[in-house]
Amino acid sequence: MNKHVSLSVNPKVSDWLEFRPAGRVILHTGKVNIGQHITSALVLIAAEELNIDPNQIAVAQTRTGSSPNENYTVGSQSMQHSGYAIKKAAATARNELTVRAAKFFGVSVEQIKIEDGNLFIEKTNQSISYWELVKNAPLECYVDETVDVKNHALHQLQGKHHIARGMWDIVTGTYEFIQDLKLPNMLHARVIRPPQYHAKLVNVDEKLIDKLAEENIYLVRDGSFLAVGAKSEFAAVKAAKRVAMTATWQIENSLDESDIYELLVKNKRDSLLVEKGCIPNKDLEIPPLDKTNVQGDITLNAIYKKPYIMHGTIGPSSGAAVFDGQELKVWTQNQGVYPLQAAVAEALRLQLDDVLVQFMPGAGVYGHSGADDAAFDAALIAKHLTNFSILLKWTREDEHCWEPYGSAMQCNLQASVNSNGEITSWSHETFSDTFLTRPVIGKEPASRLLSTHYLNESKPWPVTPPMLTVHGGIHRNIEPIYNFPSPRLVKHRVYDLPLRTSALRALGAFGNIFAIESMMDELAEALKLDPFHFRLKHLNDEQGIQTLIRLQELVDKDRVNFPQEAGLGISFARYKNSAGYCSLGVLLRVNGDAEVELIKIFCVVDVGEVVDISGVRSQVEGGIVQAASWSLYEQVSYDATGITSRDWDKYQIIAFNNIPEFCIDILDRPGSSYLGVGEITTGPTAAAIANAINNAVGLRLRQMPFNSEAIKSAALLS
Amino acid sequence: MKTIEIVLNGMNRSVSSEEGTPLIYVLRNDLGLTGTKLGCGLEQCGACMVLVNGEPTFSCVRTVEEFEGCVIETIEGLGNPEQPSLIQKVFAEENAAQCGYCTAGVIVSISGLFAKNPRPTDKQVKEVLCRHLCRCGSHPRILAAIEKLRGQKLDE
Prior knowledge:
The complex is a heterodimer. Chain A is 29% helix and 21% strand. Chain A is globular, with a radius of gyration of 27 Å. By secondary structure, chain A is α+β, with helices and mostly antiparallel strands. Chain B is α+β, with helices and mostly antiparallel strands. Chain B has two domains: 2-76, Ubiquitin-like (UB roll), CATH 3.10.20.30; 86-150, [2Fe-2S]-binding domain (DNA polymerase, domain 1), CATH 1.10.150. Chain B is 35% helix and 15% strand. A five-stranded mixed β-sheet of chain B has the order 2-1-5-3-4. In chain B, strand 1 (2-8) and strand 2 form a beta hairpin. Chain B is globular, with a radius of gyration of 15 Å. The chains are: A alpha+beta, B alpha+beta. At the A-B interface, helix 5, helix 7 and helix 15 of A face helix 1, helix 2, helix 3, helix 4 and helix 6 of B.
């Protein structure tokens, strides 16, 4: 029996790959492309193991029923899950078919060679293809996890530059996004949202309702859920605006606009001690913070803060659905078709098997955006407007105001060092809202869908208990990877906070690594120690040490070119202390307007065996740029009446005028396990920027965003 | 309904649409040119960029009748997967897209820039690109593609 997370649920070779006529192979995966081009890597793995051309492989679109159930595409785990499973499935298939070929030719398996999908005996003309071998005897075998995979020395495809799959369609505008769907008998739909979370619909102008009906515009109303559908998209857009102007809402509660960081430490919360291995333990008492000062030690206290941050997808969330009275078909850009199927079935009281969910690409989101909600909105409208296909698009404002944000966080740190530069005590407490309000199968998933809170029979907003898993949401990477004597680590899951939150790239690791790596820098500075040396002194992890040493080489080689006014900051982390390694250096300057100008990024990563080196590079660069944007510019704004950052003018993200030069080194480890890459750079980026600002202008910023106002106020206080 | 005459991707077209319809809906829904993306509907993100008389122009707010007599080029007019333009080819080779939602708009703008000036300065490139937002962080790959283009002849 397979123990692997994906193989245990999907154990057969045919769950992952199928040989189809005309030399084709179809790959099945539960992991979806959300901008990271995971399918490019999966195809390379299969092609490498099978010795075939990657162009012979097609990847089936992920859908309920026929795709392996791999839950969500999250946590930088697609390579460890699907990548591993497909590697073992392909190797099992190759072995099984080699045995068949040997039998067919009456020779030993050692005599069989494989090239381009043909199995042959050298120096003879005896040859048979995979496809001929499976023609009358399909592969029924189970994936053998103990199977020998191809020796990495023989790899011909992996680790080389490849153009990502779908790239030619992307650059020519022919790549099909969910927003581009054209379905039979289709209505374009828009939702009319309340002014803020806590509002009830009182009424919609009756005359307008009649008028819309005359214009063949459909109005769907269920409790406080309001939507319009029309044959023409622009007619739907206009109708939604007219309905919004005439609808009246009763505000039941205003948003608590007091300082979020005060609420984080004041509100009701569950506090848990986090044990070695980064596991919270409900049964342990939290020891008080040790305030005794050992003579000769330096003790630093610091509070690090990050605000609410948006996923901020460039293409607002969309969903499509059609209901024939029995079966509901849903198209979604979300990151898990199976959990969405369960959520939609529960919400609309349909049999699970009557709900079919299929993935379609959307714009990049990196977490739980409005995608699941938009899919449900489409399904809900389709249920009301039977036999019409519904293509529902959120507006820019819908996405900015209603997506579940990455939670605001506060990290309170205290650390002591002795005169030998050794860290003698370490305390880290993190206060945050939840990072997990995605639909979870078996845990009332419907209540996680936004619009279920506004229906006639509305669902209460979910209140999720603290996650207790290893490196779960808030406490992800709260445990320092460094060798400190028994750190005191506390997770505070805080309730009754004003905004809706959920998973955003790296979850709590972003804030926690920012805090740890800032504190490491503050300690090194207090001791007047070199930041590389200080980290290396406390690090036992061999691979981690190698990335740091390599980073130091890259930085030192370039030091003569650093502009005089520039500052360099470094950081290091291993995501979840078990995944990919990232050592990062940021070179920047603070200009006369107190704005940060990024000059150059130095980054060394170790993500285990590299399959798609272009994909790894894109994920590293993309993660750094996105996290730089979070760190320098981003903050959801709101007041008592609702969200006030309702478009891109009110919610600034990074632009092309602040993109630095990149110097990236990817340490390939052929033959070792995949470690994942998508989220490994985010926390290190924030910390390295803060450390670099300090190095450049002597100002220690502990609260994001590090914009000109923050730098100016820090300067006034210094 | 109002009918206007335009030159779209090299073809003369009569386009009928309800008065006041922003160009993007006509391109995407009536003419099937879905390569142009709707991002914000506010001229803030650049996903909807098309070339109008050679100038990169937002298509998400201005109404179709404003384009009477104009020469309009969309991403589809620049090339196709079998015959991509040089700019499209270099963007693909550099993997200058992650999710790809902002890509068409960026390529349209850069095509407009290079058509006028095959050796644009950094400042000119940034000026054009600052009308585009990208969430995946493909900026470094996009800049690498443009760097490569600056060293090539566009009429190859």
